[in-house]
Amino acid sequence: MATIEIKDIIKKENLVYGKTKILTDNIMHYCPGCSHGVTHKIVAEVIEELGIQDKTIGVSPVGCSVLAYNYLDIDWQQAAHGRAPALATATKRLMPDHYVFTYQGDGDLASIGAAEILHACNRGENITVIFVNNAIYGMTGGQMAPTTLLGMATATSPYGREVALHGYPLKITELIALLPGVAYVTRQSVQTPAAVRKAKKAIKKGFENQAKKIGTSFIEIVSTCSSGWKLSPVDSNRWMEEHMFKFYPLGDLKDSEKANEEDYKKYIE
After folding, report:
1. Which residues make beta-bridge pairs with 157?
2. Residue 216 placed within a domain
3. Which ranges constitute the DSSP H helices of the chain?
């Protein structure tokens, strides 16, 4: 009786999905249900599809994504907390033919790194920013973040966020969309196959824009934090859809193919 080997079954014409070679075989450290793993996967797929593995440099600061270099087989740099845009700026200016992106969480980008990201975007640095927003400090114990929703309980707001005590949630993406140096701003998610496809398309556009040299591309991924939220992965997705999407609606906020300097002249003439 003839032996059938797996290679005879999984032929190219029968292959439905193949893991991208950009992803390493290292086991991810993320909690079950975390959105980081899916986001890593689609970033890796985009890099492979564009054929830019040897010309891509990622910048990962402090936070849950601090070990991202273990999972994507590209060149990486480690930045201090919140300082990824500054490091990415220097890298891109020194190596303008490379694709440079930052991968940041909300506690990093919207808090300690708020000045860094706003000024990098205002300068129109030709980089791509991937902003993972789960409305909490996930790595350090579930503290309240700038993006934490009103009424949302965290380790440092156990009775829920209150305006009088904590101020309003920061819509950092909307602020960034107002800056003339930014060409593309979008907000996506990865909780369903359809959402993953849209997020991947947005990330791919963000990388392609670097070749066009039209300014900064900013992609927010509204995400879950099962551990920080004290919910199961399924309940986390449901909570995100019911609460996060109301305050952080999905879709494009800005998409400009024109030179940003020409847009800015409207305000100074």
Report:
1. 154
2. yes
3. 6-9, 35-50, 84-94, 106-107, 114-123, 163-166, 172-177, 193-212, 226-229, 233-239, 245-247, 260-268
Nearest to 173 by CA among 117, 220, 124: 220
Half-sphere exposure of residue 81, counting CA atoms within 13 Å on the CB side?
Answer: 11
Q: Which residues of the chain have pLDDT under 70?
A: 1-10, 12, 258-269
pLDDT, residue 259, reads: 46
Query: What does the pLDDT look like over 61-111, one tens digit per residue?
Result: 988 888 899 999 999 999 999 999 999 999 999 999 999 999 999 989 999
Q: Is 160 inside a domain boundary?
A: yes
DSSP per-residue string spanning 231-255: --HHHHHHHIIIIIHHHS--EEEEE
pLDDT, residue 9, reads 64
- CATH at 197: 3.40.50.970
Count the domains in the chain.
Answer: 1
Cα 80 to Cα 56, 140, 268: the distances in Å are 20, 15, 36
**Does residue 217 sit within a domain?**
yes
Give the torsion through C-alpha atoms of 49, 53, 57, 60, to 10 deg.
70
Range of the domain at 64: 28-135+146-255
219 bridge partner residues? 130, 186
Match 């939220």 to its residue by tokens.
229
Q: Give the C-alpha separation, 41 to 46, whole Å.
A: 9
**Residue 182, domain member (yes or no):** yes
pLDDT of residue 6: 64
